[in-house]
Write a structure and sequence with these properties.
Elements: H1 3-14, H2 18-37, H3 48-61, H4 81-94, H5 99-127, H6 133-146, H7 151-155, H8 160-178, H9 184-202, H10 211-221, H11 230-253, H12 268-280, H13 285-292, H14 296-324, H15 327-340, H16 342-345, H17 361-373, H18 377-397, H19 403-417, E1 426-430, H20 433-436, H21 440-448, E2 455-457, E3 467-471, E4 477-481
Parallel strand pairs: 1-2, 1-3
Antiparallel strand pairs: 3-4
Helix pairs in contact: 2-6, 2-18, 3-4, 3-21, 5-6, 5-8, 6-17, 8-9, 8-10, 9-11, 10-15, 13-14, 14-17, 14-18
Length: about 475
């Protein structure tokens, strides 16, 4: 007997009031997730935001057609015409580059992504005859949305691509699971949607090329109840063909990327395996950074405070799952995680929580199932809430070199620079490049109203210049007189 059948029998036969209590739990988790993520709306622009804002503005001024981003003339490291180019045209033109509205748009994408994962759970429950599929969907939506893996997706507008790919991947999975049980015409329609969703996902992020494999993992999970037929296999073949064509276009429209995105088989694999475990345990990236640098005690304390409640949550839910899941269902879930995270195991240096956004889809469904099987679901869910709050709120409070701390530092520097009498060309010397990334030349241009060509980064004071703007090692901007010429 499968897990979902066990849940149905347990809730119906042993405790008829449990369903209403579970719905109350779902509502409580959802409200807590809103409380947890609402402050993200007030995160300032930072980092890559300024560069894509400038690009979107230039496209608007030149009256560039929206479709042109899908066939770009200029080549750079990424080809994500939907989640970057088109989305930022929307942010710059429709939202008028308002940072609060832009973060609200990311908030909406996060919500839709969580709902899409919940829809996967609903379709999965229907395929294995669970009595309350919408209950599982509601719990899964909240569990998925509460994870701290969404931290950057909500606090950094440039990370919207993560929510885009979750939406299209989850909807593909939902269509794939639902199609075999539908009538002929609905089944054909759902199967036609799968290659289209595949294409939209590829236009959002490169790792979506793995979607066909992820679909097969869900088929493995429901193999005893539902098997893909000819229409599903045609849809899968169509997705593979689209992936091949897209890959050829990717090579045509992109150039070499930053070395941080190089894929290598070295010790980085061990580090990235450890990072995946950390993301699932809600251990913040900032805590890992502290452990790796000069704040080991605080970092370990923070990581422990985030991981301990999550380990408790895993203990109570996974314990229930192991009693009812078959071996091939466990294998399907594990393989799903490994395949979904596969490209990030090979990254040479970069590692962020939102890389696990796809890998967490299947676990969030299973953990929600396990939560419904526990005798004290409210208490167990509370452990998840505590873990996420400690991770997320702590990440907001950490100053530089923390990511959000760097964003707020940038706002302080802009407040200072706007009080200064600026002349062009603006000569800038950067002593702390890591911190300066939060602003960049694009940020100085956007926030100070100076053309990028009139902002010059220099290591030496140009001739005939009396003073220059120096970003000191401590991060603060200060005016300094140019040294006299010999």
């Amino acid at each position: 007997m499968t897990l979902i059948q066990q849940i149905g029998k347990y809730t119906y036969r042993n405790n008829r009031s449990y369903s209403s209590n579970a719905w109350l739990l779902a509502v409580g988790l959802f409200l807590f997730s809103l409380f947890l993520w609402w402050p993200s709306l007030y995160t300032p622009w930072w980092g890559d935001d300024y560069g894509v804002l400038q690009t979107a503005k230039a496209a608007r001024i030149s009256d560039e057609p929206w479709w042109q981003v899908f066939l770009p003339e200029s080549h750079w490291g990424f080809w994500r015409p939907l989640s970057i180019d088109t989305y930022w045209r929307f942010v710059e033109e429709t939202l008028h580059a308002n940072s609060v509205l832009a973060h609200a748009a990311n908030f909406a994408l996060w919500f839709i992504a969580s709902l899409s994962v919940g829809l996967c759970a609903c379709q999965l429950a229907k395929r294995v005859n669970y009595n309350s599929p919408w209950l599982l969907a509601a719990i899964t939506t909240s569990i998925y949305g509460l994870s701290s893996i969404h931290f950057l997706s909500l606090h950094w507008v440039s990370a919207a691509n993560s929510s885009f790919i979750v939406i299209f991947t989850a909807l593909s999975i939902a269509c794939w699971i639902a199609a075999p049980a539908c009538n002929k015409y609905t089944r054909i329609l759902l199967c036609c949607c799968i290659p289209l969703l595949q294409l939209l996902a590829l236009f959002s992020k490169e790792s979506s090329i793995l979607i066909p494999f992820l679909l097969l993992m869900f088929s493995l999970y429901v193999f005893d109840y539902s098997k893909p037929g000819k229409y599903e296999l045609f849809a899968l073949a169509g997705s593979v063909i689209i992936c091949c064509i897209w890959y050829l276009c990717l090579k045509m429209f992109t150039e070499s990327r930053d070395q941080a995105y190089d894929l290598v088989f070295e010790v980085n694999i061990v580090r990235n395996v450890f990072s995946l475990g950390a993301w699932f345990l809600n251990i913040p990236r900032e805590a890992l950074r502290m452990i790796a640098t000069d704040a080991k005690f605080i970092g370990c304390l923070w990581a422990s405070a985030s991981a301990a409640p999550m380990l408790g949550f895993f203990y109570f839910t996974v314990q229930q799952l192991l009693n009812v899941l078959s071996r091939h269902q466990i294998a399907a879930a594990i393989l799903f995680v490994l395949i979904a995270y596969f490209p990030y195991f090979l990254l040479s240096s970069q590692s962020y929580e939102y890389y696990a956004a796809i890998a967490f889809i299947f676990p969030s469904i299973l953990l929600s199932q396990g939560l419904l099987l526990t005798q004290r679901p409210m208490l167990v869910a509370g452990l998840f809430c505590i873990s996420s709050y400690v991770a997320v709120q702590g990440s907001r409070e950490v100053g530089y070199p923390g990511l959000i701390g760097r964003a707020h530092w940038a706002e302080q520097q802009f407040a200072y620079l706007k009080t200064q009498d600026l002349t062009v060309p603006l000569i800038v010397r950067v002593e702390n490049k890591h911190q300066f990334y939060a602003i960049g030349v694009a940020g100085l241009s956007w926030r100070l109203g100076i053309e990028e060509k009139d902002i010059l980064l220099a290591d030496a004071c140009p001739q005939n210049s009396e003073k220059w703007l120096v970003q000191k090692q401590d991060g603060n901007f200060r005016w300094e007189n140019c040294p006299p010429l010999n």
